[in-house]
Amino acid sequence: MQVFKVNKAFRVMIIAQFFNNIGSSFFNIVFLIYAATLPNKTLAVTLVAFAEFFPSLLSVVMGNLADKTKNHLRAWSFARLSQAGIFLIVTVILTLWHGRFDSFIVLLILIFFADTIG
Q: Following DSSP, what letter does each residue of 44-74 receive, concatenated?
C-alpha cells in the first residue's frame, strides 16, 4: 500500500489494470453471447472458450518476456495502446460485418492477441 501512495507510475498502472480487467470481463461475456447468436453457435462458443483460455497458458512466457524489458512503463504503455488499437479494429468489424462467421474468426484472432498482450 505504501508503494501505491508514493509511486505515481505504479498507481496509474494498478488503476488502469483494474479498469482493464473489468472491461475485459464484460467484453468476454458479451463476446460469448455474440458467438451464441451465430449460425454455428456450438462451434463459435467453443472457439471463444479456447481463445479466452489459451492466453492464460501463455501468461508464464509473456510474464517472462515482460520481466526482461528495460523500461517497464514504456513497454506497459505500448501494450495497453496496442490493446486499445485492437479493440478499435474489433469495433469497426462488429459494426460493418456483424453476424458473419468469417468476421467472427477474424475477431477471435484479434481478441486472442489482445488477451495475450494484456
A: HHHHHHHHHHHHHHTHHHHHHHHHT-S-HHH
Distance separating alpha carbons of residues 38 and 18, to the nearest angstrom: 31
Quickly count: other Cβ atoms within 10 Å of residue 49's Cβ. Answer: 13
State the Cα–Cα distance between residues 99 and 35, nearest whole angstrom. Answer: 9
Q: What is the pLDDT of residue 89?
A: 93
Provide CB contacts within 8 A for 81, sequence distance 6+.
none
Q: What is the pLDDT of residue 106?
A: 92
Contact 101/38 with Cβ under 8 angstroms?
yes
Pick out the chain residues at pLDDT < 70: 1
